[in-house]
């Protein structure tokens, strides 16, 4: 019985050690996943900045809006330490441009309505 008790004790200790190691590996895996997600967000932020600049220069406002939309989905902690001001400015500029183009379109449509009513 003493031999059996010793064997059971050793098995319990071994199981505890394995369990502790599995928990430690799980914590490390979670940290790696967080670091990978953070790295991907930083890469996305960089791509958004470059994409917005390029799209705005080419007056491709739809593509610029897609980059701003992607920027808005990036983890806010990543944005705190970055140069995301460019994307915030681009977002405001896009809103102004869309509103201005909408006003022009509405005025053009109104002119057409007046012209067709007069005819």
- Structural class comes to mainly alpha
Low-confidence stretches: 113-119
Order of helices and strands: HHHH
What kind of sheet is the major sheet? none
Tell me roughly what share of residues is in helical segments.
over 70%
Please give the count of helices: 4
C-alpha-based Rg, rounded: 29 Å
* End-to-end distance: 111 Å
Query: How many beta strands in the DSSP annotation?
Result: 0
Mean pLDDT: 84
- Estimate the global geometry from the Cα principal axes: rod-shaped
Strand content: under 5%
Secondary structure topology:
Blueprint: H1 2-57, H2 61-72, H3 76-80, H4 85-118
Helix pairs in contact: 1-2, 2-4
Describe this structure in words.
The protein is built from 4 helices and no strands. 90% of the residues lie in helices and 0% in strands. By secondary structure, it is an all-alpha fold.
Looking at this protein, list some descriptive labels:
119 residues; mainly alpha; 90% helix
What's a concise summary of this model?
This protein is an all-alpha fold and 119 residues long. Helix content is 90%, strand content 0%. It has helices at 2-57, 61-72, 76-80, 85-118.
